[in-house]
Amino acid sequence: MLFNDLKLMDSLLRAVRAEGYTEPTPIQVQAIPHVLAGKDLVGCAQTGTGKTAAFALPILQRLSQTAGRQRGAIRVLVLSPTRELASQIGESFSTYGRHTGLKNIVVFGGVGQQPQVDALRRGPDILVATPGRLLDLMQQGYVRLNTIEIFVLDEADRMLDMGFIHDVRRVITALPTQRQTL
């Protein structure tokens, strides 16, 4: 099977080819059609098997093919346990989505908040965040999650092992009940 067989749009296939990918990994073969169909999904695979592309590619396609509810509204939230992983996920969305016109930002603690607030004001389509900084920004009124269409809980097991269960629950209660969850 090739990436062309997964019914991804040309702009995503160009980005995938530019990265040197020709054949999707097993997690990508299984996940991409389900995510494109708008179904909820739980995926499990080892590090380095392409899990991020398995959700990022179909998310980028879905956002590109559907109009947002509101201009400048955050449509996707990816919650990540560490800033290193959040940064990697953000880079993947930028790389795969470079021909789509969609904007993503990454927010995490341990750095100055103002550049992240400024980026939020520019209206990203996709927000990648760690729980602590996200909750801080929500409490300060900089982030509202009522327009989220797709919620990704990346490395959920690790996040829970790190003690983020209460933070994750607080985030989930702020999300719309009608959403796709990965």
Describe this structure in words.
By secondary structure, this protein is α/β, with parallel strands linked by helices. Helix 5 (114-121) links the parallel strand 2 and strand 3 (126-129). It has helices spanning 10-18, 26-36, 51-65, 83-96, 114-121, 131-139, 156-161, 165-173; strands spanning 76-79, 104-107, 126-129, 150-153, 180-181. The protein contains eight helices and five strands; from the N terminus they run αααβαβαβαβααβ. Strands 2-3-1-4-5 form a five-stranded parallel beta sheet, with helices on both faces.
Low-confidence stretches: none
Radius of gyration: 16 Å
Give the averaged pLDDT, no decimals: 93
Order of strands, widest sheet: 2-3-1-4-5
Helix tally?
A: 8
Order of helices and strands: HHHEHEHEHEHHE
CA distance, first residue to last residue: 23 Å
Question: What global shape is seen?
Answer: globular
Major beta sheet summary: 5 strands, parallel
Beta content: 5-15%
Query: Percent helix among the residues?
Result: 40-55%
Number of strands: 5
The secondary-structure class comes to: alpha/beta
Any key phrases for this structure?
single chain, 182 residues, alpha/beta, five-stranded parallel sheet, 8 helices, globular
